[in-house]
Amino acid sequence: xxxxxxxxxxxxxxxxxxxxxxxxxxxxxxxxxxxxxxxxxxxxxxxxxxxxxxxxxxxxxxxxxxxxxxxxxxxxxxxxxxxxxxxxxxxxxxxxxxxxxxxxxxxxxxxxxxxxxxxxxxxxxxxxxxxxxxxxxxxxxxxxxxxxxxxxxxxxxxxxxxxxxxxxxxxxxxxxxxxxxxxxxxxxxxxxxxxxxxxxxxxxxxxxxxxxxxxxxxxxxxxxxxxxxxxxxxxxxxxxxx
Length: 242
What we know:
By secondary structure, the protein is of the alpha/beta class. It is built from eight helices and seven strands; from the N terminus they run H-H-E-H-E-E-H-E-H-H-H-E-H-E-E.
């Protein structure tokens, strides 16, 4: 009795309750973290689309004990309370629209205003059930996460499709992203041809990129995660100390 795909969500839901996570989605990041070690002791983590807060909990746990340092900043359209379990004073949240938040303001919120060493995007559109529409919205959110991480100019220099107007519109905001060189990026997407395009754009910017569908993903869901490890600076930063 039980078992099979239908039982999987119940298992993760019950486990989340048992372990004090605010949502079963915690186990997606737990698995990704186990396999890829995105977050290390002392990391500065940015969590885009952080509601309801389960990833804040896993990110904080991944930093190790408080004396190891590190920080987690969660951003969401909704006001998100920092969960009392598994989080400590290193976790903060702000309410803002990631789609319009300028990268220089985001950088100003990072430790010593030096950017973040890990960016997690679990942003997802309100699913309408129209496959193509949902996929397009998902790609828009994913592209925004990539833009914030590496800067629109970096992403577009790789893509080289020459949409000058689009780049020009945001060039003041697009000189640099907020992901530190050597940092890691995780983006949730809905499977589509356009999602593969984001993978192609990000590939040359990172030492390694791969896809993962975590075990805690609901069987009916088309979501998949793009994992980008070790951000490479495109332009040599000779004038920057260490």
